[in-house]
Structures are given as structure tokens and as C-alpha cells.
Amino acid sequence: MDKFESKGQRLMALALLGWILFNYPILALFNRSGMLFGIPILYAYLFAVWGLLIALMAWVVEKR
Amino acid sequence: MLHGWVIVATSFAYLGLLFAIAYYADKRADAGRSIIASPYIYSLSLGVYATAWTFYGSVGRAASDGIGFLPIYIGPTLMIALWWVVMRKIIRISKQNRITSLADFIASRYGKSALLGGIVTIIAVVGVIPYISLQLKAVSNSFIILLQYPEIIMPAKVSVMPVLQDTAFWVAVILSGFTIAFGTRNLDVAEHHQGMVADHRAKTDFVAFVQHLLKQVYATARRIHLVMDNLNTHFRKCFEEVLGVKKANALLRRVIFHYTPKHASWLNMAEIEIGILDRQCLDRRLPDQATIITEVNAWQSRRNTEQRGIEWKFTRQDADTKMARHYVS
Question: What is the ipTM of this complex?
Fold first, then answer.
């Protein structure tokens, strides 16, 4: 498979992963009281996954 | 207490800075060294997504629903992952069909329907009006709030004032000036009608080429036989269109046209060979004419010693079976 195409497919998989992680069943797991380093768990989860997705995208795009 | 003119002067200074950057970027783009070609500047420039209203809207949502402000940022982030596939395709289609607006794009996807294009335009215009008014409201409210500083006084929910005293009106005037200066300046007639222009060019180019051939290369020849395939520019009609009937007749007096068979032009073989030359030899950067000549000669002699022919998919046997009933036995 062409390298360009495989990048596209990996990025699509990432978008799908993000869609799953940011939606109902999984998101609901983190919707509870409690703090992580002084940050509410839901917020910490959302921002962590957000950052992780951006990092993964950068990795997929920049990888040779 | 901030004076009105301080706020206005600061805003204008900021706008001037934006103008300067836009001007600089334009200059660089003209020189072929676009600053947007940097991935970092491109990514940062995506910030135009966040408008004046984002300042109030996002902060407001964060204040009223907490996490509720986040989806409008996470959504685009997920979409950006699809750009590699989706955006590239959209850009390719737009470039191929010379599409510059969303309405044209959607219309062209559904059989170039003018009605559909019109509907999309109307929906887009109607849909964007409330959003534009929110932007203007955001700017004018900021102005009113800043005027009261250090006291924080929210503007009244409904304030009726004459149009000429409404900050939003003046903001609209300034912003539309900005848009006219930088947004529509690149309106290029040729760009939008390149298809038409390119077709016209092909005809004039061909006529100019034949003129050169007849008047310079074969100026003294009594008869000139032009062997051509059936491309639309290769006909007497094309000369008449470009030069006018009289001049065309005078020019073509010595010329006899010969056309290759419509569905079996042997000129295609020559064109295939030129295509291979392009792919195998010319499809890279060659710095000067001398290099091009030596490279093409090298390719040509290699090609000739290899004795490469064309591998026909349609063989004699195929022809015999397929056309047997046309043969006279």
C-alpha cells in the first residue's frame, strides 16, 4: 500500500478513536465526582484524550 | 476611565498591524515564497476559526455549563484528522473544476445544477446573518464595556439607539472595508473562466503555430500537406474563427489537410512515445537547455537500442474473430 494512503487510513482510525472516546458509553465512565491533581476527573480525562489525539496525529503525519 | 478615542486608536492600530501582515503575506505569495507554506503559520492561522463572538460565546458557555464549551474545539480537532483524506479530495476537485465557493462545489457534485447552487447560496447567506450580527454585537459590547472601565457595567440587554450612534454600525463599515481591500482583491476574471480561456488559447496557439510554419519554415513551398488527427483545433473552421474567413482562406491556400482515421489515429503512437519521454526523462528538474538536449538524446538512443515496441492488447487474432463478418471471403 502507498505510504500516503496508509497515513490517511491511520488518521481516519484516529478520528474514529476520538469519536468513540468522546462519546456516551466511555465518556460516562469518567463522569463522576473526584479530583485528579486538583482537576475534576471528567475535565482531566477530556483534556488528556484531546492532547493525546493531537500528539498521535502529529506522530502519524510526521513519521516517515 | 478610558477615553473613547484611546479605544478607537488602539483598534485602528491593531487593524493597521493586520493590514501590514496581510500586505506582507501578499507580497511574499506573489514572489512565490508564501509564508502560509510553513506548517506552523498555517496551523496558527486556523485561529480565524475563533471569531470575536468566540470570546463571549465560549467564556459564556464555560461559565454557564462548564465543560459545555469544549465540543466546538474538540469537534474540529477530530475533523482535522480527516483532512488528509477529505480536505485533499475537496481541494483536488475544486482545483480541477475551478470552484471557488461552497455553492459551486455542492452544485457541481450533483450534476452542475444551477438551482441547487442558488439554494445553497441563499441558505448560506441567511444562515450566516445571525452569526455576523453576533460578531458585530460582540465588538460593540466590548467597546461599551471598555468605556466604563474600571467599573464593569454590562450593556443593557436591549438598547435602542439611532443607527449612526451605534458602534456596531461603524464596526460593520470598517470590517467591510477590510474585506473589500483584502478579500475580493484577488478576484481574477481569468481564474474563474480558465476553462474558457484555455480553450481559446489552444485555438490561437495552433493557428499561430501553423502561421509560423507556413510563413517562415516553408515559406517557399508550393504545396504543404498537414497530417493531423481529429482534435477540435485542427479544422479549417478553427482558422476561420481566429483569423476570419478571408484571411484563413489566404493562409490555407497552399495547404492540404490529411486526417488520420478517427478511431485508429497512428499519431497516437507518436503521442504515447512523447508521453513515455515525459515520464521517463523530462519529469524532473532540468536546469538548462543543453542538459535537456543531452538527456533527451541519451533517452532516445537507449530507447532505440532497447527496440521497444508497443504491446498490443488487440491482436491480429482478436481482429480476425471480431471482424470476421466484415471480411470478404
Answer: 0.87
Question: CA B299, B303, B307: angle at the middle one, nearest 5?
Answer: 170
User: Cell digits for B221?
Assistant: 513551398
| CB pair distance less than 8 Å for B78 and A46 | no
- Average pLDDT of adjacent 10-residue blocks, chain B of 329 residues: 80 84 78 74 79 81 88 90 87 78 84 86 92 84 80 68 76 79 52 43 80 83 85 81 83 86 78 86 85 90 84 81 76
Between the alpha carbon of residue B114 and those of residues B96, B97, B117, B326, the distances in Å are 19, 15, 5, 47
φ, ψ dihedrals at B13, nearest 5° = -60, -40
pTM for the complete prediction?
0.54
Please give the single-letter amino acid code of residue B232: N
DSSP state, B222? S
Choose, out of B77, B78, B88, B90, the residue to mutate when testing the contact with A (most A CBs < 10 Å): B78
- The residue among B308, B289, B307 whose CA lies nearest residue B297 is B289
Largest interatomic CA distance in chain B: 107
Chain A residue with CA closest to B71: the answer is: A22
Cβ atoms of B255 and B214 within 8 Å: the answer is: yes
Run of H or E residues at B300? helix B289-306
B91: left (phi over 0), alpha (psi -120 to 50) or beta: alpha
Query: At how many degrees (to 10) do helices A41-62 and A3-21 cross?
Result: 180
Q: Could you give the angle at the alpha carbon of A53 between the alpha carbons of A51 and A56, nearest 5°? A: 110
CB nearest B81 (choices: A22, A42, A57):
A57
Looking at the DSSP assignment, which residues form a beta bridge with residue B255? B224
- Which residue among B70, B77, B82 places its CB closest to the CB of A12? B82
Whether the bond into B261 is cis, omega within 30 of 0? no
Would the CB atoms of A8 and B85 count as touching at under 8 Å?
yes
